[in-house]
């Protein structure tokens, strides 16, 4: 079993999307923080590091921050939206 999955992160604020690996055992809050840092680096600072970013599925459902990535049902190849 792998401990990371590859997801597509859509970032409407900068009109970009990125392929990002996230750890399945971390809670959504930590995974979101890791995604924010990664997107900030990949966008060369165009996406600011914010503490209140939210991760949603492609239907607009917000993931609960207390659940792990695995418990949230996020799978390899899923498209997530970072707000």
Keywords, separated by commas or semicolons:
single chain; 83 residues; alpha+beta; Ubiquitin-like (UB roll); 4-stranded mixed beta sheet; 4 strands
Structure notes:
The structure is a single chain. With 83 residues, this protein is an alpha+beta fold. The chain has one domain: Ubiquitin-like (UB roll). The protein has 1 helix and 4 strands, in the order ββαββ. The chain has one helix spanning 28-42, and strands at residues 4-11, 16-23, 55-57, 79-82. The chain has a 4-stranded mixed beta sheet with strand order 2-1-4-3, with helices on one face. β1 and β2 form a beta hairpin. The radius of gyration is 12 Å and the shape is globular. The mean pLDDT is 95.
Structure at a glance:
With about 80 residues, the protein is of the alpha+beta class. The protein contains 1 helix and 4 strands, in the order ββαββ.
For the biggest sheet, the summary is: 4 strands, mixed
CATH class: Alpha Beta
> CATH topology, anyone?
Ubiquitin-like (UB roll)
- Calculate Rg over CA atoms: 12 Å
Strand content: 25-35%
* Mean of residue pLDDT values: 95
Strand order of the largest sheet: 2-1-4-3
DSSP helical segment count: 1
């Amino acid at each position: 079993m792998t401990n990371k999955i590859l997801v597509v992160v859509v970032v409407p604020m900068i009109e970009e999307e990125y392929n990002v690996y996230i750890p399945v055992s971390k809670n959504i809050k930590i995974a979101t923080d890791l995604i924010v840092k990664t997107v900030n680096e990949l966008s060369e600072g165009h996406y600011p590091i914010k503490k209140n970013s939210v991760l949603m599925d492609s239907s607009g459902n917000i993931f609960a921050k207390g659940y792990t990535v695995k418990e949230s049902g996020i799978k390899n190849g899923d498209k997530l939206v970072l707000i």
